[in-house]
Amino acid sequence: MYLAKFPRVQLAALPTALQPALRFSKALGGKVNIWIKRDDNSGLALGGNKARKLEFLLAEALLQGCDTVITTGGPQSNHCRMTAAAAAKLGMQCHLVFNSREFDLRQGNLLLDELLGAQLHWRNPAEVDDIAQEMSKLAAELQAQGRKPYVIPVGGSNPVGALGYVNAVRELLQQADALNLQFSAFVHASGSGGTQAGLLAGVLLHHLPTEVIGVSVSRPRPVLEPTVTELTDLVLSLLNCSLDPTEHVQVLDQFVGEGYGIPTPESEEALQLLARTEGLIIDPVYTAKAVAGLIHAVRTGRWPEGSNVLFWHTGGSPALFADQIFWGGNSI
Ligand SMILES: Cc1ncc(COP(=O)(O)O)c(C=O)c1O
Predict the structure, then answer these.
(1) Domains and CATH numbers, the chain
(2) Is the CB of 48 under 6 A from ligand 1?
């Protein structure tokens, strides 16, 4: 198998469930069958998409003999929370470098970061402009103290992390085959681009007739699309595959609204509609914007009657339990 040569450590609860969203589909007119891939239930301290990436990233860290992990994000970063959980599970030290002024109050993901034993470092963006450099400086300090740090970029979005989503496509395909299902599209929230790159690489490798639609939560399309294209290209190269992803990268950026973490009427409708039709909780920062994009696409007839469309639920619910001011505004 093409992924077998990459080291992987078991961290996530896989496979995640594939579920039909019958009442949600009906509320949107009943012509398109919406399914949900429950990566919000992937384990690692309340779940989310990063569990899959961390399986490959931290396996590499262990292989390199590292005992410490450093990563970055905003104060409500799901990626930081899940990295802290993975480090705890593997007995590694975890350092989180927040691209934010310091907050004293612990809510949502930040509360969990501390509970999970991570060491928090605050870097005010008004004072530092290169967070990657801040992580390198911290790595050097930790090295001088005798530790072996492994640095993970924002969102775990490098080619190794994205392998988690190549593997996710393989997992989904097994579930879909068993139900004799074919999906017209996967719709998901796209931030740093690694999830989308992995999904697209998986779709291309398996020659699936499925669109991968990343709904941006922050960046404009002219910025995110090239990022996803480059990352997909790198993932495919890592897998010794020479396919060109350029024509297949699709980013919708009209659901960001005023910015990262700022709700829109459409994202609030999405949160409420899924809660009240499916009893399903999505998050205000990422998945609600993705579902807003999905709702719009269904209502405007993007897919023909009878199509199956998958909402890939990437998690994020701890942010529901934090005041909006703690969501960050600058994490990706
Ligand atoms: C809940 C949730 N959904 C989606 C994403 C976006 O994933 P990516 O950064 O791989 O684009 C994130 C990233 O932090 C997230 O936390």
Answers:
(1) 18-48+157-327 (3.40.50.1100), 66-156 (3.40.50.1100)
(2) yes
